[in-house]
Amino acid sequence: EKKNKKNRMSEPSLLVVVLDTNPAGWAALRDEKSTEPWTLRSSAEQLLAFINAHLLMCLGNKVAVVAAHAQTSEFLYTEEMQQRGPPPLVRETGKYEVFAAIDTIIKQNLVALESRECLVVPHCALASALSKALSYINKVRQLHPLKDQTAGDRAGHKVCPARILVVSTAPTAAAQYVPLMNCIFAAQKQHVPLDACVLHSSPTILQQAAELTGAVYLHLTESVSLFETLLSVFLADHKDRQSLVLPSAPSVDFRASCFCHNKVQDTAFVCSVCLSIFCLPQAKCPTCKSLFKTTT
Hints:
By secondary structure, this protein is an alpha/beta fold. Helices cover 37% and strands 13% of the residues.
């Protein structure tokens, strides 16, 4: 038993962080908080410290960061970015060079992303970001297989343990329900937990994602406790969490929201082509433009 525990502690894992960078979401959080308002810059600094802690857990640990922006998503950091040539390091600070390189790359890409003009939309491109995160996990598993691993695919191939952490600032759009559910089912099949650290109070599909993938969902109310929460709740991997006392999961509402009003529905009308959900009958699907047969 001690040997298995030692092997598990030395087993590298991959963490992919999906950060909501939509300016509208962070602006809404600032309006909600009269004291200690949320800001993207301060939250990113705390997230960088959490990433460094993850890398310290094991020498072979890997990390990637995906930004879910307004109507688009892109990588803020991957291992390939650092291999192509890291930016100049500030050695006077005494920071570990690997951490300094990662922090610099993420900060530079984040500043470049913020400087671009974008449409003001209340929701970020979460489905796109999760798709890129899952694709990157699959790529890493194909390129870096492990020798000792209990979880594998149907063919018995050994894969790298991986998980996704989503830091969300706003509820997801109803129109993203179907692609998000596809991402959740893909994560289930790949044995990838979808952790969620939610900074807003509105219900979200991330509750369903965490429940279906065996992950942790947490609604955070105080901005000053972000770093402490990330360390105490989300630092341990899926196996080590079995030995921890984690926050109790809230009751999950698996009902879907309609695409027209974004309200939870007990019964609804579903498009047979794109699976869009509506609370009222429609003559034409607003999503895929399919025409419905009407009865007289």
